[in-house]
Amino acid sequence: METKRSDVEEWKKKKKRKRVTMKQKNLFELWGLKDPHPKPPDPDDVQQSRAAAASPLNCPFYKKIPAGTPFTVDAFRYAPVKACSAYFLTHFHADHYIGLTKSWSHAPIYCTNLTARLLNISLYVAPSFICPLELGTEYNIKGIKVTMLDANHCPGAALIHFRLPNGQSYLHTGDFRASKLMQSYPLLATQRINLLYLDTTYCNPKYRFPSKEDVLEFVVGVTRRYLNNHPKTIVVVGAYTIGKEQVYLAISQALGVKIYANASRRRILRSFGWAGISENLSTNGKDTPLHILPISSLRFEVLQRYLESQYGQYTSMLAFRPTGWTYSETIGENLNLIKPTSKGNITIYGVPYSEHSNFTELQEFVQFLRPEKIIPTVNVGNPVNRGKMQSYFQQWLKA
C-alpha cells in the first residue's frame, strides 16, 4: 500500500497532538524494546474509540458487489452491512481491514491463505470466521463463482473475480500494481469484465513512476557506493507492517547480509512461508548493518536516536523511504537525478518504489480488459476528481 491521500488527511486530524513530538514510548515500540516507564492510555483516545464504535457508518456503494449478491469488499468498518452475509478482504493493510478485531462475529471473511494467517496472528480474529481461498482456484460461494488472483501488491494481496449465474463478470482489484503478467491470467484473458472496481490511487497523468525492478536496481547501487565510501554505515529501509519487502530483500541478497527487524515483524515475515526467509532474519541488530523500521519513523530526529542506540557501532546512516509519493515529474524515470536529504551523518533517499499502478499501467490494464463500466475506489470523495477519472476511462476505451 501507499497510504492514500484521503486516509492521510484523516489520520492527521486524529493524530495531530501525537505528532507534535515523538514520545520516548513510541521509540521503544519502533525498536522492539520495552518502555521502562509506560504511560496510561490517553482518555481522549479511549473516548473517541468508544464514540466511533457506537456510530455505525453507511457502507459506500463501491464496496458493495451489486446485482443481488450478498458480498462486500474491504467494508469491515461499516459492519454489520445490511444484507451482507460474506465479507471479502483483498489484503492485509489497515485502511482495508479497519473494523476487524478479535471480537468479529458478523459473517465469514474470505481472503487468501497468507492474509488469513495474518488475521489470526496479528488481529486474533477467530479462525471460525476466516475462510482462506487459494489463488487461482475457483470457489462457489453462495451460488457465485469466486476466484482470487495475485494483485502484485503486498504479500497475500488479491484481485477478486466474481462470475454471476447470469454470466456477468465483475473484477475488484483491491490495491494492485498492474503488470503484463496479468494479461495472461486465463479468467481475464478469456472473459469479458462487465464491471471493474479499479484502484485509482495514482490515476493522474503526472504519475508515471518507473518499474519496481528499476527502483530496486537503483537502491542496491546507491547502497553499494555509500558503503564503499562509508563502511561503518547502518542501512535502514522504511516499510509497512507488510509491504516493501522486496526493497530490503534486494539489498540483503546483493550485499550478502542478513535483515534485522523487531520480533513482531520477524513473526509476520516468517508467516509468509517464503523459502529462505527465516534463515535470512537476524534477532540481533549488532549482527547486520541492514535494519527495517516503520516507514513513519523515517524522520531525522527519530533516526538520529536510533543511530545513537547502536552503541557506537556505526558512524553514519543511509535510509530509504520507498513510496510512489516521492515521485517527481522532473525526475521521471531518470532515478540518478534523485537528490537525497541529509542532516549531519544521516542521509535519506525517497525512492518511487510503488506497489500501486502508475497512470500508464492503469491505462494499459483498462485497455486490455475493456470493461463495460469502471468504478474508481480511491480519491472518489471529490466530484472534480471523479469527473477527471471518468474522462480518462472514456479516452482509454475509445482508443
UniProtKB/TrEMBL annotation:
This is DNA cross-link repair protein SNM1. Residues 1-12 have a biased composition (Basic and acidic residues). The keyword Nucleus applies. InterPro entries: DRMBL, Metallo-B-lactamas, RibonucZ/Hydroxyglut_hydro. One of its GO terms (biological process) is interstrand cross-link repair. One of its GO terms (cellular component) is nucleus. Pfam families: DRMBL. The keyword DNA damage applies. Residues 1-23 are annotated as: Disordered. SUPFAM superfamilies: Metallo-hydrolase/oxidoreductase. It comes from the Eukaryota.
